[in-house]
Amino acid sequence: xxxxxxxxxxxxxxxxxxxxxxxxxxxxxxxxxxxxxxxxxxxxxxxxxxxxxxxxxxxxxxxxxxxxxxxxxxxxxxxxxxxxxxxxxxxxxxxxxxxxxxxxxxxxxxxxxxxxxxxxxxxxxxxxxxxxxxxxxxxxxxxxxxxxxxxxxxxxxxxxxxxxxxxxxxxxxxxxxxxxxxxxxxxxxxxxxxxxxxxxxxxxxxxxxxxxxxxxxxxxxxxxxxxxxxxxxxxxxxxxxxxxxxxxxxxxxxxxxxxxxxxxxxxxxxxxxxxxxxxxxxxxxxxxxxxxxxxxxxxxxxxxxxxxxxxxxxxxxxxxxxxxxxxxxxxxxxxxxxxxxxxxxxxxxxxxxxxxxxxxxxxxxxxxxxxxxxxxxxxxxxxxxxxxxxxxxxxxxxxxxxxxxxxxxxxxxxxxxxxxxxxxxxxxxxxxxxxxxxxxxxxxxxxxxxxxxxxxxxxxxxxxxxxxxxxxxxxxxxxxxxxxxxxxxxxxxxxxxxxxxxxxxxxxxxxxxxxxxxxxxxxxxxxxxxxxxxxxxxxxxxxxxxxxxxxxxxxxxxxxxxxxxxxxxxxxxxxxxxxxxxxxxxxxxxxxxxxxxxxxxxxxxxxxxxxxxxxxxxxxxxxxxxxxxxxxxxxxxxxxxxxxxxxxxxxxxxxxxxxxxxxxxxxxxx
Length: 670
Known about the structure:
Structural class: alpha+beta
Number of strands: 27
CATH class of the largest domain: Alpha Beta
Number of domains: 3
CATH architecture of the largest domain: 2-Layer Sandwich
Mean pLDDT: 84
Distance between the termini: 65 Å
CATH superfamily of the largest domain: Histidine kinase-like ATPase, C-terminal domain
Number of helices: 20
Low-confidence stretches: 19-24, 407-412, 578-593
CATH topology of the largest domain: Heat Shock Protein 90
Shape: flat
């Protein structure tokens, strides 16, 4: 027990001695600080539990021992992950004197991935995966099939209930592991899994591992899907470009240099955006890295050499092809396997291995040169496409210079409608991009002028999914955003120059507001993607309802929260009837404007941000201590790209199918 002493100010103070040091044993540290291991305890962290277990099964596939993974979401929201791998070893560990199965499930940094005898490459590099899942589960059960026997162990909050035991035998040739766990409700804010979220990762892994069948089942929803793509990355590229019009068939490159297997598929379409996804040991490197740099360098150099050699670009041509010109309309998937990957960057998903750049660059340069020599018509189509991109780039450069002369893009001359903040430190500054002058006026009056800037935008900005860069730069609202943010655009874009640490999109909670928000997100995703990768883009969450009882006011962000508040208020009003009733002509008229009254409880539904006065907007949506904002991330970049193309691209049929499939989730003001 720590002793107390009196300090110089006369205050009692506990002594800092050896007894003050807490030692967390076993998996206690994981339960104490779960976000350190899985990111957060919201929906993202919840679904990450499945990924951790599935990654172990995929590592078995990378080692050549597994061809099937079955994920089942049970009715009680427990999850089973079953594979046909070698099965976790169950024999007694020579040092720990326990079953290897128990060690793997209960000890951090324990696994077979730290040497290269059991696994040459792996996605689960830190040995914390399945043990973390076990620690954060209410209960966990593991079955292992090895050597004709079935072994079993059960855990409660990470602690074994009994030693590993044999519970049966089997006659099939298949070995494997089945892990079943139920997330602990004491840890997670939500414990219901989303089928689509899990399916995105299963589909992605099936593309990256063409020899593996990924099956996902949801017992409660009665859903089941299986993914197996024999074409691998070629099928992945076709899937990503499903709503675009490719100008040639996918180009496939495969090889190995310096014990680093490299696999790449890419094609060009008639779109204006780039769509490149890179992976290292099945991990999505959303910030790129040396493998992506090697690919881009080889692409630019090889195409340029071919074009000059074959007279497709004249020596006296004023326009030269740069790396940016080879990005327009490019869809590519890069997958490499690295024995000792080194990750860096904001989200630790940027590959830093310097040797990988030259490996990818040499392999792509060699294989692509061979392809172009054998496929001259395809080479000409791609060069022509890139030449048109270069012409648009040149037009965009002239447009930028013209606009600069008008002081619209110059960060020294900020847009007139921007109400800037007083401090200059980007880390502590935030800008609200607000729909409409009315809401912008309320936001300007309600904000904290020290660190909050307001930029109102008028109407709907240009759909950049369908526009060349020079057309994008001609849009006045986009010009204002580029100028206000200060990070530039195109070749000059540098996220480090952003004047704000947070860029918050604040639109109405109606159909038009959702459309404007989608247009804004499309712009940032296509032209300022690094701001999303660095976690600087947010979506404001203004309330849908104001509930008033006497002098008390409450705000609800959705129907469920509204109902909870009403239930709580009614429970406090003793002796009064709880059924709703229609009240007077005046209140009926108010109801038509989105306001209803129930037994003295006034319920107002906001149709727009402009309906809130400055004080209400501040307290509900802008006050950092009370507001809710959603951070936009790139965790499912491939799925996000496909949704943007579906919703904002030229093809109508995929958009109609998407709307029909998801209509039940829409929140419409009718």
